[in-house]
Specification:
By secondary structure, the chain is an all-alpha fold. The protein has one domain. Helix content is about 80%, strand content about 0%. It has eight helices and no strands. Helix 1 packs across helix 3, helix 3 packs antiparallel against helix 4 and helix 5 packs across helix 7. It is globular and about 45 Å long. The two termini are about 25 Å apart.
Length: about 200
C-alpha cells in the first residue's frame, strides 16, 4: 500500500513539475509518450527499495526510504526529460543535513564530499562545454552531503562505468552519436540506491 501511495504521489508531483516548468523540458511535446511506463517503473523501484530497507533500525530506515524515493523520482525525470528539478534537490539536501545531525555522522566528511563533488563536476561541465548539466552537478553535491567521501567516490565511478556502457550501446544500436547528450542522473541514482541498499 505504501508503494502504491508513493508511486501515485510521485507521478503526480512529476506531472506538476512538468506543467510548471515546461520551458526546462527537453521533450515538451512528448510528455505522454515518454512517461507511458512511468507508474509501473516507479512501483517496481519503490517496492524493491522498501522491501530491502524495511528491516533497518528505524531512524536509518526512514531516512534511507526518503532518499531512495527521491532518487527514483530524479532518475525518472532525467530519463524522461533530461532534467533534474531544484524542487526535488532542495528538499533532498535539507533532509540530508538533518540526517547528518540526527545520526551524528562526521559532518566535515559529508560537507567536504558535497563541496568537492560539486566543484569537480562544475569543472568537468566547463571542460566538456555542457556535456554535464547543472542538475548533475547539484545532484553530485547533494549525494556527497548524504553519503560522504568514500561512498560518493564509489557512486561516481560506478555511475561513470554504467553511463559509458550505456552510451556505447546507444551508439552501436541507435542513431546517437558521441556528441549527443547523455542523462547521467539515472546512473548516479542507481549507484546511490545501491549504496543505500547493500553497503
Amino acid at each position: 500500500m505504501m508503494s502504491i501511495a508513493l508511486t501515485l504521489a510521485g507521478s503526480f508531483w512529476i506531472d506538476r513539475l512538468y506543467k510548471s516548468s515546461a520551458d526546462s523540458l527537453t521533450f515538451p511535446n512528448e510528455i505522454q509518450s515518454r512517461s507511458r511506463f512511468r507508474k509501473p517503473l516507479l512501483l517496481i523501484c519503490i517496492s524493491f527499495c522498501i522491501v530491502n530497507l524495511i528491516n533497518m533500525p528505524t531512524p536509518q530506515m526512514i531516512y534511507s526510504i526518503i532518499a531512495a524515493y527521491l532518487l527514483v523520482l530524479i532518475m525518472v525525470t532525467d530519463f524522461e526529460q533530461y532534467v533534474i528539478f531544484n524542487k526535488m534537490l532542495i528538499p533532498f539536501a535539507l533532509i540530508g543535513a538533518v540526517y547528518i545531525f540526527h545520526l551524528n555522522l562526521p559532518i566535515l566528511n559529508h560537507l567536504a564530499a558535497a563541496l568537492l563533488g560539486g566543484v569537480i563536476f562544475l569543472i568537468l561541465a566547463l571542460i566538456t562545454k555542457g556535456g554535464i548539466g547543472g542538475g548533475d552537478i547539484k545532484l553530485v553535491a547533494v549525494l556527497g552531503l548524504w553519503f560522504g567521501i568514500d561512498d560518493l567516490l564509489f557512486i561516481v565511478v560506478a555511475a561513470s562505468i554504467m553511463a559509458g556502457v550505456a552510451a556505447l550501446i546507444m551508439i552501436i544500436f541507435t542513431k546517437k552519436s558521441r556528441r549527443d547528450y547523455l542523462a547521467y542522473g539515472p546512473y548516479f541514482s542507481i549507484s546511490a540506491i545501491y549504496c543505500l541498499l547493500f553497503q
